[in-house]
Fold each of these.
Amino acid sequence: MDMTLPGLGELPAAEEQAGLLDVARAEREVVGEVRSPVAHVHVLLRQPHLDKVFDYLVPASMDSSAVVGARVVVDVGAHRASGFIVGRDSTSEAAGRLRPLRRVVSSLPVLTPEVYGLCVDVAARCAGSAADLLSLAVPERHARAEKAHLAAHGGAVAADRLAVESYETAAGSPWRAYLGGPAFLMRIAAGQGPSAVCCELPGSDAVAMLADAVSAARASGRGCLVVAPTRREASRIAEGVAAATGESVALVVADEPHESRYAAFLRILTGIDRVVVGTRSAVWAPVSDLGLVAVLDDASPNLREQHAPYVRAGEALAMRAVREGAAFLSLSGCVSLSSQAMIERGEAALVRGEPSALRASLPRVSAAEQWERDDASWSRLPESAFALVRHALDEGPVLVVVPRAGYIPMTACASCREIARCETCGGGLGLDFGEAEPRCRRCGLSAARWRCPECGGGRIRAVRLGSHRTAEEIGKAFPGTGIVMSGSQASEGIVDSVSGKPRIVVATPGSEPAAQGGYRAALVLDSRFLRGDGPGSEIGFVRKACRIVARVRPARDGGHVMFAGGIDPVFLRMLSTWGQPDFAAGLYAQRRELKLPPSAFWLAVTGESRSVRTYLGVLRSSLFAAEAQGERSAERHGDAASDAQARDPLLAGGIVRLASGYELLGPVPSARPRNDARRNVAVRNEGLRAEAGNNAAARGGAGHNGVGQNASGRSETGHGGVARKDEVTVYVRCAHALGSSLAAHARAAHREYTAKQFGPSLRLEVDPDV
């Protein structure tokens, strides 16, 4: 059957893809120098087709040190690689003679069976490589830290305290303000594993709530793991939990020195620290007998891995909780789409505040455009905003939030209003304080001679004003009032907290310091820019807005939050009633109707167009083979009128049926990650150099084919080059129930693609941001 995709051409037919033969392997007994001579080693090789367990022979000299979980060095072909022993016995499926272990790095079993099983499961769920996750889970050995730990504590696991016979939620516990909160803690203390998504009340103490949950888990004699988006929040939680529970809390963050990280890892591994708090790298901490895993603000982009397999910390923790029978808690003022998916599928219960507690804690929320006295409702600082700040300063601090940092972070042509962009890398141009010339926000290049490509104009105007310019304007409007700036670009950085005396705090989203007793008022400027663009912008806005509202005093104490500069009435009503759970449910229903993640399972494949085409052919062959074997004969989509119609390549909306139950969308131009700015600049510069080389070649100054070549005659801008102008992304989607099947086929197809060297590398991402 032929299939033609716009921009990709015709996919290879199933019979054109030579599949790897699936030969059944028989186990055989191996006789060696020791009792269990075969070590099963998961080698840390990044190639997908080599992401598996290899068998090696254990020499007599390594018998005592080659324990399950130990790190070893082995030979794979002509290469030497490290890996972990995941099993030892006397059987092997390898047909040839086994090669011996090269070296045992340390006899300490640093990889636990629970963590290894989690890595394998997450890799299968994300169609990725377990080796990538094992590299995240177990830090590289630090000999001095290991020697000091063994000298002080030895390698034995420390004895844990016994579980208490009875547990009761304290009278002053913040969980008593939530429907089902005390029952959730009671089940944890009883040794059970409930799962809950808690919509945090405004003004509540998240650290105290986490400390109570940790106390409940420790009452059952089990360990705890808490993950936060940033190091700052993780440190605050670790200090608060340690003070409230009296436990020794391990802090696991990626930017710690290697020696400190490995020392903390060993303390967790040997059971000295049973409570772990950290950033997303703490997901893989080897806490034994887990009783609670908790994630704070799971919608934060900081909680998603930036490298393959791009797993979200909340999803990995939920999988770990199921594997180890632990309780799962997602705590945030915003209910994320992934948390809502767990609620919809019955995998977690929603815990929300009591109505009386909500009324007592919620501040007043309004928009500046609602005030009739405002003649210019779209003024950046309307009269009502000035009146609110003036009145609030008599009773306490005022928070002013600006969506962007800097002085003038975005500019446009003064004539045609086209956004001003850098001629080198395409980044936006902005102005810093005291500078007369605009500068690129991506590559930092000065644009003194910038000209608008649309109209040829050379003058620019401000489009958005940053926190520094806002502080300057507010300082002029309220002379004599103290102003504190908080943000990554502020001179004092991000401020943790301020006192309750009257002052104005200017902050960017995510850097709002807590005020003693809460802010008397909060003013959000340029609210329409707080939402941003692209997929997930709604949840992103809710996250930022909830954090601001939670910093303000209750309405009964005069607390007031005002949004100026345009806010959607839907968001305003939601914040006024603290209806984030209902908003998330409605948003999830919309995405379910459109078959968008997380209601449906999506796989994004990114690469050069011809490579993506080849991979899709391999994937389709795998799906057809499974269908022919009857793997999914009972699972059909009811919306397909007939098999012939389902495989019509010209379906409306650009959706093509790749196989029965699996749909293909795209291709579309691939979007570089936001943190890939330097690579974007390199691509642009390399493209300019290549163009210059081609021009020189036309004049006879380069190779005979008009492309600059290296000594081997291969093009420098071929597969290995950075000038990949035809990089595209396609999406394969299916029902959530078929997600594990699609992930397995996608993973197998990727292994075959790399094993046969069909083309350059591809990027596979499950449930992308669409």
Amino acid sequence: MRKRFWWLVFTLLLVVFTLGAKEQILNDHFQIIYDREDREAALEVASFSEEVYEEITTLLDHYPKGRIPVILIGQSATSNGYYSPLPHKIALYLNSPADRFLGSSAPWLKTLFTHELTHYIHLTSPVGIGGSLSNVFGPGALVVNSALMPGYWIEGITTYMEQARGAYSHFALNWRAPLVTNTMWSINQGVYGSSYPPTSRIYVTGYLMVNHLISTYGREAFLEVNRKFTSWPLFGLSYTFKRVLGKSAKELFGEALSGEDTLLYRDYEWNEIITPDGDYYLPYLTDRGLLGYGYDLDTGSFVYRLAGESITKEAILPISSLAFSGDGETLYFTHYWTKRGDESYRDIYRYHLLDKSLERITSGGRYNYLATNWDGSKLIATDKDHTLVEVGSLEELAFDAYQPIFSPDGKRIAFIEVKQGLSTVVVLYEGNKTILWEPALAEVYNLRFNGNSELLFSLDLDLYSYNLESGALLLIGEDPIGITGGVIFDNNLYYSTYTSKGFALRELPLLSETVAELPPPGELPLEREIISLEGKHYVDWPRFSFWLPSLVDELSPGATLLFVSPLNRHTVLLSGGYSLEQAFFSGEATYQLDLDFLSLSLDATFGRQQTLSLITSLPIYNGYSPKGLHSISTLLGVGGVFETKVMETTAQVGYAYTSYSAPKDYYGRWKASLTGAFYAYYYFATQEPLFFTRVSLGGQIPLGRTHQAIELKLDTAISHQNTAIITLLPDYLDIQRKVGLVKGLVTLRYRLPLGLFDYPIPFGGITALGLTIGAQTALYLYNTNFDWEEDVYLSLALNSDIAIGTTTIHPSIAMASSVREFKPALSFSLNLNFLLADQMLTSPL
């Protein structure tokens, strides 16, 4: 009987491994894994992959063995990518970014591939401690090299290899603004990222450092610094710089910045900044004044209104892009949400700014920029392929379109066209398409109409106007840092620029205009030949990551082995050992299946005692909206011990709600949860079942906009037979004064964020702290008799966010005690998941 059971398990696992619609293309150095509908993108990646491989491996002097897994993710509204160490692989999100954060000249897929492949080549190089350990314990041990590596060293070489981002004028705003105003961050702050601008700090610092290092001291200097640092990282990278180059990290950072000629602007008579700290992006002209999108740490994402000298926040909503009707009463915006796994969308909503009502316009869309006419009756948007469509009918109006806008009379539609790395402005009018100039390398951003026949826009960070009737191009605004767009309101010019505290608006009177020349035409790049390659069925087999020696007990030497598949669908953990004292083998095998719609865990132990357990988790519903997330999930489990003939089953269903919150809402805002679970134990020897039920009800209420919150929770356990319950113990304590057939644990917590910080420490920085004060007590019911614990348990927990390199850990320290008997207990926890952190192309969206 037992053999049949194990054969059944083996057959089911074989079916699970071989099912799936993924395909793969193989070339000399890559295994490109993709969905069938993304075959065209897979062929494009294959067309340039070997060329990029040759360039990066030559620079970094490392040539990995075997094919590199490249996973393409097409069903997503995300524009990003990552390198992951377990197993070593890279993943590319095919959706190209609407905000063109890499610039217009760079082809998205090739630049993304270059960035992530550089991570792979850099972080799998068999040097230092990780290289030595990998020779013994397996390829996964290389992750040790990046555990204490500064964020700017991880992201610097990748941003340098991209080339396009470093040459992109908008990227330079990140360091030019703080340099000009003498508010530049330190090299120690460049080690990690924080909530404060710029959010891309490690990329900026890294590019400046690596570009200076290689251009001044040569490629060999970078390789030598990398080799020596990974051999002994505990003294930090600055110590390594001094050993190799005779200069500290601070000195090298100063050298990298010395080429920026910003001293000329220290005494510049700046135009007045009219917006508070945070990001205030270029607004739109309406009858209610200027309306725009903003973001700050206190509120998160919001709509602001500028009327006269006052700025107010009109609505707090998680916005990706937006458009306003001319009367200033209707807002259209896009909202990003995840359905399951990597599948995500960006749908359109309509929000009425006066009565605060919200309507959903689309479902399952991936829209980028929006535009509406003056009365809000027509809505157009660019989709994931940057095709301009009319929302509703989905009629295609134009291709390669960015940032569309209607003229006030609704007769013209203008948009930026970006194609093959060249940009221009296009106007649609009465069925005709007019190109304002031949496509050029100049970067164009933020179109705004001034009347029906004049367009304002940023061109290479200067502000221009174009008369659609005369064809005249005029320079109307300059700023030492740069102008990203402008709008004219009440005879004043409001323009968007960057500061050390985020994007801001400056105001100046309309000045004299200077006639300008159109940008010179750019040269189209040579089109790369894309050869059709054979696609084969892909099977996501687990791959060996590492093994570690382990002890089953004091006298039982053993080993633990980890296998993970490239798509992370399958994880196998094997451990075993031999007891020298009792002369027997024991071990455990765990298999984890993770699909978008199901998680399954199968665990078996063998030795003196044989057990088997199976747990499945199934998300039933995920309801995302701009107001928050509603989710319903279930969990089913069954397990048993063969020797004692005991079987346990579990069934659980849970509901949770979390509202939208801002960065300073360290513990979140509104929360609610309800979970019910049923447990059954069956003893085959006595044929006696035991049944228990557990119900948890909880909620959190914010205290206004103070970022503080109160949490109240009731956990209840019920025994369905005459068996007393010993469970639901207070936080950090192992105390239960009484027993009952029903127990309720009442919890009250006060959550106090202490703030967002940017304080460097060795290998990283402290970025947030919070304090939780808790009080708990218990109630009992035994044979209709109600009882109280006659004690209260108090706890105090200090929570923290500490950024280490490119990721964040969450250490906490807590103290708890009974009021009746003061014996404080201390607890400390440390999240070490940073060892397995993925390296992203940009800050996570």
Amino acid sequence: MADEQQKTAAVVDGERPLTDKELEAMLRKSEKVTEFPEVTFDEFTEPTWDEWVEACNALLKGKPFDKIMYTKNYEGITFDPIYTRKGTDAILPTNDYPGMGDFLRGATVNGYVHEPWGIAQACDETLPAENNELLKEEISKGSTVYNIKLDTATKNGVDVKDAEKPGDIGVNVTTVEDMSVLLDGLKLDKYPIMMYTGAGAKNLLALTVAALKGAGHDVKTLRGVIGGDPIGELVKTGKTETSLDALYDEMAETIKFAKANTPELRTVFINSDAYTDGGAEAVQEVAYTFATAVEYVRQMQKRGVELHDIANSLYFCFNQGANFFMEIAKLRSLRMIWAAIMEAFGAEEADRAIKVHGRCARFTKTVVDPYVNMLRNCTQTFSSVVGGVCTYDNPPFDELIRKGDVFSRRIARNLHVMLQEEFGMLSPIDAAGGSWGIETLTKQITEKIWAEFQKVEEMGGIIKALEAGYPQAQVADVLAKRFKALEMRSDRAVGVNMYPNMTEEPLERREEDTPKLKKEREAAVAAYVADIDTNYLAGKLAAVETVEGAIEAFSNGATIGQVAAASCKAEAPETVEAIAAHHWTERYEALRFETEDYVKKTGKNVEVFLCNMGPIPQHKARADFSTSFLQVGEFNVHLNDGFQDGEDGDQYEKCLKAFKEGDYDVAVICSTDATYPEIVPKLAPMIKAAMKPSATLFLAGAAPKDMEQVYKDAGVDDFISVKANCFQTLKMLQKKKGMIE
């Protein structure tokens, strides 16, 4: 970081901007200034709190102010309806500056002015040559980081011949030749590299260095991160392949190697995916990720690694969720908390700054109506930039369905470009600084993260906590709350549990031909290893515990599987309860797919008749609500303009006649609360008598307590309203239809 602060920015319009060091000196000098001119706003009349509440109540039209205007989130923080200076003056960071102190206001003095956030779009094509082309394409179109996403087999040290599904989530690499093809022609002296390597970094770091040295590349210019996260992988899978001590030894080895050979490359990539994919809220995500990082710091110190070197080896990845202001506060908060943690370890000021990579949370994405993911990604990326990430990956909107294509990648990448070049997000330094609301949220989430982090520390650290099942239970509790909120539609997923798009054409999954790709990869690897001197290689494989030894082995023809097997110590692995990955709408999507499968097999669906009573203004609101409610299950809702009294009969007979003309599984009486006492006792028995035994009669709207039993006695089975459990209601109707057991 010290080297970065010494860099001089490029000359702009003939004038040289201040370097970070010059700006820092100016800011520190400004701390001595204590007198400022008074600014008044006498021309404005400041309303009182009571006056503002009175104005709100007028708009709420009788709805309870305290219930409507205060919002509690999953972090246990309540959003106030309005924030004022009077309530936040004491916590404003008036003595804090970006790039120093507690780093609340940013990791660097100049923010993004001289060094924009890195555009790190993940490249995940299966074949090394194709992924190489994709990496070059991304850079040519605006990306500024080579973000290489590896497949599961490569991260786990499994050769392609033994891989269950090579290329499942990224590029497959087995030999140094594969890595050479993958890195061929990349401008690694100009752009940083990013590679998450799974539980350990040693073997893939060695494979990368071997390939670059073989191509004559000066590895000292290599920068970015090639890093692993053993505890993160433990949480995802529930086990390690060897002992944690062995993995810590490997981690220390990579840090020492990087210090001597690739000083600008970080080798520990601490990832919050395991928690956020499991449904964790922001407090849990940061607290448990920092508890993991603290474990690494302690273990590295035990192995003789200097604190400065540890600090400069760590790179964090956090997921950005859907709560816009909360996510901004989270990023500001975590910089401050990490600075405090490193200060407690005795780190110098420059070593307290945190390096943060961000990505849009997979948990918040949907498979159904996936184009809405573009909007979700937009707000999450925006909050990340305002919060101050160092690098960012905005995944394609279709990431839950398939690997991205030209269109989805372009849309994802261009969001960065627009934010940087069109929206002016490179100019403000600490864009959220001074915001009464965000400063308050930052303080609140900081206190909660610190308290949760301390709980883990009191349990003996993250490993003891995981062995006791504490983080798993906490995350599971939040996941259950999220699912319940979706069931009740208090949380709204547009296109899924609200406003379903019944004309949607599902995206083509474009499944890869895995057997064909595996065969192609196996042939390439077999051709490469055919000329290898296996006896000579055996000697090299006996010395792969160091990065240098692994480099030698790879350079002499070893495969990733051979080096992994030779490196793995026969020590007891760690096991804990894993946190399974989810995405928030998966249950609704499974429900919808069950309907689709049943329709394809039988040609039948849940048929819904709307008993729309009276003119359109009388029934429309309830009819629209009920239609959307039931279409969430992709049921077939039959629409009509309502039934009214006329010369051709009364509304009840007309409604009954229309109902009898079809074969319906559901009927919904739709009108107003004022008309229901007259309509329901007469219409409900008529419709109920005409229904088949398995059919269900709903009333649209929540009945007053004194009328609920009256309506049920008339034949109403249940009510469709904002209080109804949408998910359970739809499952019940599927079961009645025979779609599910």
Amino acid sequence: MIESHLISDETNLEEILSNIVKLGEELQKPVVATGDVHYLNPEDYIYRKILINSQGGANPLNRQELPDLHFLTTNEMLDDFSFLGPEKAKEIVVANTNKIADAIEDVHPLKDRLYTPKMAGAEDEIRERTMTTAHQWYGDPLPKIVDDRLKTELKSIIGNGFSVIYLIAQRLVAKSNKDGYLVGSRGSVGSSLVATLTGITEVNPLPPHYRCPHCRHTEFFTKGEYSSGYDLPRKKCPECGTQMIGDGHNIPFETFLGFTGNKVPDIDLNFSGDYQPIAHNYTKVLFGEKNVFRAGTIGTVADKTAYGYVKAYERDKGRTYRQAEEDRLAKGATGVKRTTGQHPAGIIVVPADMDIYDFTPIQYPADDQSAAWKTTHFDFHSIHDNILKIDILGHDDPTMIRMLQDLSGINPKTIPMDDPGVMSIFSSPKILGVTEDQIQSKTGTLGVPEFGTRFVRGMLEQTHPSNYSELLQISGLSHGTDVWLGNADELIKNGTATIANVIGCRDNIMTDLIQWGLDSELSFQIMESVRHGRGIPDDWQEEMRKAKIPEWYIDSCLKIKYMFPRAHAAAYILMALRIAYFKVYFPLVYYAAYFSVRADDFDIVSMCRGKEAVKNAMRQINDKGMEASAKEKNLLTVLELANEMLERGFDFKMVDLKKSAANEWLIDGKNLIAPFNSVPGLGLNVAKQIVAAREDKPFISKEDLSKRGKVSKTLIDFMTENHVLDGLPDENQLSLFDMM
């Protein structure tokens, strides 16, 4: 305050503080001395100085010398207030502080348990929905393996008060499905048979099995004969002759709710990106607008950003530090709160009999008081044990599948998971009618979710997966840390193991160890330790060796840092195979959907000029190597798909002023007509404006297009150069009849 000239000097400051103390005495109110603490130790001063310096002239603190604001000891506080006399200083620093602290009862700013919303009859509805579907699929009475699993799960779910969480998820998925959008599950929710039977996930966690849709006959494989029911050979029911359904992925329930079944379920769902806002708003319908909020996030200073702050401080202050000192200063600034934000998917649900302020303050995102959602001020991780968060994510796969269904009329749920033609693209592009040289890939998986990147295509080239289980392994291996490189890939290369029996997903460890005869609880504990990168204690390793578990398997476990859930991988592969089916058998439908939904960057000129122009554009980006920008790398992926489409005998057409859509590629015979947003620099809003203006009445000139379509001169020039506006005059032509 002295530095800011709000107070003349220290004498003036002491006078003001003395008057405050006297006022407290007159009013018989205790006066307490507190500190304005910004950091713990005096030497931490430099970190705050660096952080404030990074804000430049926008922060007025940069125009003055910063005061020392470390956490003062009692003696330091007494020294600072010694001008009041030793007795009065001790009163306001020590005595009054303790007096107020003693007068306050125990305060718990955060709740000590989970508070879930109430839904009348949730327990009964979850049980009824589960058992109804179970009897429809598996008959009545249920097979023992199904009955035992459901008893275990329902006891855990209902007994721990988790029914409402399941029911919320069921409501959201059911509405999305009713509105025509499939929902993909994430995480380990597919480990729960109750989640499967209530329609939350398509992943069935039971051991691989046949079930007859007519007479309910079942056959289970519990000794590791198969890893997935989708790999079972086609078979007719021995009882009634009906074609049986193969199902089940052998995923233990413990991976979802823990070995004792009391871990709070984390149900994450992938909705279509187009449908996500509707799903978010549906939570307001379910619980009321005053009971749902967006989960808040806290953004902190990243290590590279902190290093940049240090370098800027050196530059601004004319100083030069050694590398070790720069690293120390950067470390001190790393992790400091930088901004608050909004979780893209998390919805917080407050019980109807409680208030959001029982858990957290709230705020408008970016202080925008017109925003549709309010956000929790506390970062969700601070309160996740106390209040329910539902993750309603937006994802491209459900959007793409909806478009594929609309264009083809094929119900994606009827697509088989063992189609030989589809399976062949994971080893060769031959089924697509192209060679490896033509598309510069040894597989046909360009543009297939989970399998299109160069890294994963390299895994496919090495392993040649031929069924669902092996694809599931690839998905798990590609998402894990220290699971493939230097681990499974070497085991496969040297012939020690195959893609079928390396450790691909976290659940594999538990099921493998149980198959080898290890105790189920110990198997679970080993799985949990390995998936978190904590290795395996020596005594557990000894138990594994007693069970004659191969040494390579133990060594592989010890290298792993993170593992992907099998249920998550199973859900991803389900979506990927559906999309791959259209790529193989309905190519133009597939490419129209891919370029409309998944692609953002286009080189429309090269694409319309043909495959040689596209190959040349690809070559130019590849020649840049690591120097290629992120935008160029994204464009390269699009060009690879464009090249493949052209090699398969289809063509692109330049934007058509009379036919093109705003952002969807349209099928026209054996061609795709480019949308308006494929034009460089033409955004979605302008694209929609052009279409809206065209629907009102045809464009009569470039001037008319510019005015009504809000199209800039640069875009008009591009369209003119590429013959989009052929036959359209530059200006509106005034007719004599217009004046009559």
